[in-house]
């Protein structure tokens, strides 16, 4: 009659426990990566939406004529954004749109307007 090897059975149980710990750690890391990816995706969608709204604000200013752009020189609150209109030289206007309380613009465009409009 053969006596079971209790020492080997204990080692096998320990190997199974170590494997479960490693598998659990890998699963937790994967869940963390999925969560981080979801957070980054949400941030990117928010930024994309904000830039689309800023683009609409920029377009509203870009279609204006020279005289109207000259009246709007400087910083102006336009909805949730601040629009800055500058005239670096005659007939050329720089339009920047930024978030309130932030100095860096989200969008910038240069528009040329003739000195005389019909």
| Helix fraction bin | 40-55%
Helix and strand run: HHEEEE
Fraction of residues in β-strands: 15-25%
| Sheet with most strands: strand arrangement | 1-2-3-4
Identify the quaternary structure here: single chain
Describe this structure in words.
This protein is α+β, with helices and mostly antiparallel strands and 118 residues long. It has one domain. Helix content is 53%, strand content 24%. The chain has helices at residues 6-62, 66-71; strands at residues 74-78, 81-89, 92-99, 107-112. The protein has a four-stranded antiparallel sheet. Strand 3 and strand 4 (107-112) form a beta hairpin. The longest helix has 57 residues, at 6-62. The termini are far apart.
Tags for this model:
4 strands; single chain; 53% helix; 2 helices; 118 residues; four-stranded antiparallel beta sheet; alpha+beta
Topology:
Elements: H1 6-62, H2 66-71, E1 74-78, E2 81-89, E3 92-99, E4 107-112
Antiparallel strand pairs: 1-2, 2-3, 3-4
Describe the structure in brief.
With 118 residues, the protein is α+β, with helices and mostly antiparallel strands. The protein has helices spanning 6-62, 66-71, and strands spanning 74-78, 81-89, 92-99, 107-112.
